[in-house]
Design a protein that fits this description.
7 strands, Chitinase A, domain 3, about 30% strand, alpha/beta, Helix Hairpins
Length: about 160
């Protein structure tokens, strides 16, 4: 059995939207591409057909993956969590005590990460260390780069 995955409401909605797009739009497009490629004749030397079959396999694999993710999804709603405690969906401002640098992180489920935009997984070293902490707490992050101490400056709901 697959492990339950946590999602923000926004993250869950993006999974459902992608699944809907693949089933209602992309799947019929690929089916049409296959039909056109078949009309070209000999399938053994038909690169368009091979390409369309590969695309069909990718689309079907992604549909199966999304369906599995959705079945095992647990949506964390803002009302489920205290607003002053770091949890999935929190936006946390921290200060690296050694470097004196402030940074802001949005804690999201592992399938929603986007490090360039400050969205980190609740399972990442920093995310995991922050979960459950409150404003004013200092947490120690154990990462491949070594240990670092982060002071939590603020916690908000996204």
């Amino acid at each position: 059995m697959a492990k339950e995955m946590l999602y923000t409401e926004e993250g869950y909605k993006s999974l459902v939207d992608e699944l809907d797009y693949l089933k209602t739009t992309r799947r019929p497009e690929v089916k049409e591409q296959l039909a056109i490629a078949r009309s070209y004749g000999d399938l053994s030397e038909n690169s368009e057909y091979d390409e369309a079959k590969n695309e069909q396999a990718k689309v079907e694999a992604r549909i199966a993956e999304l369906e599995e993710l959705i079945i095992h999804a647990k949506v964390i709603k803002d009302t489920d969590v205290a607003s002053d405690t770091v949890n999935l969906g929190s936006v946390v401002k921290v200060k690296n005590l050694k470097l004196g640098v402030e940074k802001q992180y949005h804690i999201v489920g592992s399938n929603q990460t986007d490090a360039l935009n400050g969205k980190i997984s609740d399972q990442s070293p920093i995310g995991a260390a922050l979960i459950g902490a409150k404003k004013g707490d200092t947490v120690t992050v154990h990462s491949p780069a070594g240990e670092m101490a982060l002071e939590i400056l603020s916690v908000e709901r996204a």
